[in-house]
Queue: 3 jobs
Job 1
Amino acid sequence: MGSTASTRNGTWRNWGGTVLARPAREVAPASVEELASAVRRAAEDGLPVKAVGTGHSFTSIAATDGVQIRPHLLTGIRDIDRAAGTVTVEAGTPLERLNTALAREGLSLTNMGDIMEQTVAGATSTGTHGTGRDSASVAAQIRGLELVTADGSVLTCSEKENPEVFAAARIGLGALGIVSAITFAVEPVFLLTAREEPMPLDRVLAEFDALHAENEHFEFYWFPHTGNTNTKRNNRSAGPERPVHPVRGWFEDEFLSNGVFQAANWVGRAAPATVPALARVSSRALSARTYTDIPYKVFTSPRRVRFVEMEYAVPREALVDTLRELKAMVDRSPLRVSFPVEVRTAPADDITLSTASGRDTAYIAVHMFRGTPYQGYFTAAERIFTAHEGRPHWGKINTRGVDYLSRVYPRFAEFTALRDRLDPERRFRNDYLRRVLGS
């Protein structure tokens, strides 16, 4: 299955194995014109239409039993405008391809998430983000969008052109149309120094505000059943470049973080009682290290161990309380959690349904190894997150519906009104959108 979704015998399955779909037909447009005609044809046949990326969402946000638009021919860089500091790419371009192409041109995105298998449209439409004190999600770096709407017309939007569509469509959940191209802000490539080191959870929580304020990009991983974390601080650097040594990189990123971690998860899945002991070993396996490299080599890392994930965005000032409650819940429960909990931050942004819309945000992501029962853990975690007005990541497992979401998103009605205008017939409908946006 590699790093993306797969299709077998007409059944599409996402990366996490949580979603199956049987589309009536698949279309792989090679141009925006072909995409628009596929949407018009779906309308003639009375079928819903959805674009899929690489299937890295754990929710059924991209699933359809109608027309499935596959992205692999809609790739590549259309234009680099050095004067404006922008790059325009086709929607199906994987982030990895974008990052390597930009690096060759001496350019970079300002911030990115921690994996780069996703397509640019899939990543932005679901609100993919990394961590940042001043720089926000991948979608917040968008300067222009090209969108094929329900009647097959092509809409371009930016702060100046169709600004109300631009405000919403940067994280559009696939509900407003199908994104065909994206213009990102880029800057001259720079160096980041990463400092990774273990730190007791109590100290991280006590010093969280300072760690956040003093670093451009701060994140940490807490290992349930232990008081241990791994912290990571990324800051701009004047150099020189000091990449991770290939042998050490292979040992830590492939052997320990993927190979040994996979084996530990297999053992934990077969014998849950061993999980706390394995967690103590896992949390101590990675030693401190510092390295300096270009951004995508610092921000992103390979994720080969399959998992399922839930992530909620809480107000940043609520992070410490929320995490303490999560730890207390795990400690007193019979749960056995073999995957670390990931904590990141983002500044407030101005995107209608961004998880950081209008508020400084902390993200808490809980994971379970694929194939282990996750419902009990996720249900208990979700109860804690929602008590703090958490907003679920659109591409990760959650059970919330319109009643809750319209309460935690001040601009929710603005988004649904725009959807009514752009897609009155609900050409882009599916079960997920019905739950989170209403019918």
Note: The first helix runs from residue 32 to 44.
Job 2
Amino acid sequence: MPKGYIIGHITVHDPEAYQEYVDRDTPILQGMGGRFIVRGGASETPEGQTEDRHVVIEFPSYEAARAAYNDPAYQQVAEIRKRTATSVITLVEGT
């Protein structure tokens, strides 16, 4: 079965407040089988436009990634990200 991924491209506007999101989303997503593959770090965008920070979270399946993103506990915490950053979140099925 192909793995699933939550991919985030994020520009943080309030780093102190955003840290609460990081502290709270990590155990929720890990508890649902998520494994952080990429979380920040150096990056460049040789084509197109994107946000400053990139996150890739791997899940056992696409369905698991969708369930994690749509989970009410995660969505409650995601409100912090929405207030403190600009983000594009994509759910992707692996090959």
Note: The chain has three helices and four strands.
Job 3
Amino acid sequence: MGTVAAIGARTSVGGLALAGVEVLVAEDPDAVRRAWRDLPGTVALVILTASAAETLGAGATGLEPGRTGPLTVVMPR
């Protein structure tokens, strides 16, 4: 079974650590892209803040045919 990670600003994702989520604090677009690129292969679900999702674009959050990688969900604003 895979793990769950969250990417975004500390104030938005920090509390998820209490539920066992691997929190990847990313306060700016470059940090978001690095966190996404460096996700461990064990991650099956990624929770993104709305800002992080905008930074990554549809390539990370869209359902593309043949797409591989973790399932992503976007937190509401």
Note: The two ends are 29 Å apart (CA to CA).
